[in-house]
Design brief:
By secondary structure, the chain is mainly α. The chain contains nine helices and two strands. A two-stranded antiparallel sheet has the order 1-2. Helix 7 packs antiparallel against helix 8. The longest helix has 19 residues. It is globular and about 50 Å long. The protein starts with a strand and ends with a helix. The structure holds adenosine-5'-diphosphate (ADP) and magnesium ion. Adenosine-5'-diphosphate (ADP) binds next to helix 3, helix 5, helix 6 and helix 9.
């Protein structure tokens, strides 16, 4: 068991860092999506997180659940395409396991696992998708599994999250050599082989932000 608290400030910082990530990596995510999709993944995230940026100062005073719910809603409302609703739902449901916490309260490592699980479950549900389909789930699911395993093993929290990042990146890498059975890349069939999935790439960097903000 890992004894660690992710503070409220941490959760605010994560969103601030995601706003920066969406700008800095816009071209890269777009480039990946240009190869096997329609080239808008970077733009989609940028539009969504610019909207979040416009409201973060007012939302950051809310409990984590409501703060992240607003973030999710912004992505859901402002972003077209599949990633907007999927990431939107992820953040909307992220804080649900800690819904009774007050505005200044953080989360334990165990709660963090439940939060990721809550967000990932809704991606699966809304996307009607699972691993091995060349999507963001190929990053998220192994990362969550690593989180659970490291928690059980009692690894130090920061070290555990470093392993979670590695598991997510390995998952991302696994998307390179498979065909897509969900999303736009599906239409390419075998031609998608050799290319990373853009959503799996952004998911890996999002998870890394959760680690680096610790
Ligand atoms: P769009 O595909 O509508 O242009 P984006 O380019 O922003 O939207 O996002 C594409 C990413 O969304 C894909 O790379 C994939 O990771 C993810 N994605 C698409 N459909 C699904 C799905 N059904 N389940 C999970 N992830 C999906
Ligand atoms: Mg796209």
């Amino acid at each position: 068991m890992i004894d660690y608290t992710f503070s409220k400030e941490y959760f605010v910082q994560v969103i601030r860092d995601l706003i920066v990530l969406a700008e800095n990596r816009k071209e890269y995510f777009t480039e990946l999506d240009s190869a096997i999709g329609d080239g808008d993944h970077g733009m989609n995230l940028s539009i969504g997180f610019r909207e979040v940026n416009a409201h973060i100062e007012e939302w950051k005073e809310l409990p984590i659940k409501d703060f992240y719910k607003n973030v999710g809603k912004a992505l859901l409302d402002k972003v077209g395409g599949s990633s907007g609703p999927l990431y939107g739902s992820f953040f909307m449901k992220f804080g649900l396991p800690i819904k009774t916490k007050g505005a200044d309260e953080g989360a334990t490592f165990e709660e963090m696992i439940q939060m990721f699980e809550s967000g990932i479950e809704v991606i699966k549900k809304r996307g009607k998708s699972t691993t091995g389909e060349k999507t963001m789930l190929d990053t998220f699911v192994p990362a969550l599994e690593a989180m659970k395993a490291e928690f059980e093993a009692g690894t130090d929290a920061k070290e555990a999250m470093a392993k979670v990042v590695e598991a997510g990146k390995a998952g991302l890498e696994s998307t390179r050599n498979i065909v897509a059975t969900k999303g736009r890349a599906m239409r390419l069939g075998e031609r998608a082989i050799g290319h990373l999935d853009p959503g799996a790439a952004s998911a890996a960097e999002i998870i890394e932000v959760f680690y680096l903000a610790m």
